[in-house]
Amino acid sequence: MVVIAKIWMNHTIEEAIKIAERKGIAVPRDLKVYMDDTFGILKQNSTNTAHIDFATCLSEVDPRLPFTFEIEENGRLPFLDVLLIREQDGS
Q: Distance (Å, rounded) from C-alpha 17 to C-alpha 61?
């Protein structure tokens, strides 16, 4: 099942990127996938909806697969039961 999940997630992400590019929506950079979890960095747009816009593209590939997301708050982001903390600039 792990192999099937990996194949399906890669397919879904590739298709979502194609949809986003056709619509002129920001595409995540440094996109990483672990099983059914993904991590990517999106440059926000003027309305701060880039994450919602890309999640919509993911849902368009297969509406039966719900995608959720976490947003960094105060330099902290929960991911895979770990709290990621952004290193602060020392200057």
A: 10
**Token digits for 33?**
């996938």
Report the alpha-carbon distance of residue 29 to residue 81 in Å, rounded.
22
- In the structure encoding, which two tokens stand for residue 9, read together? 């997630």
- Predicted pLDDT of residue 89: 63
Looking from the CA of 63 toward its CB, the CA atoms found within 13 Å total 0
Whose tokens are 């991911």? That residue is 79
Q: Which helix (H) or strand (E) holds 58?
A: helix 50-61
- Is-contact 16 60, C-beta < 8 A? yes
With a cut of 50, list the residues of the chain below it in pLDDT: 91
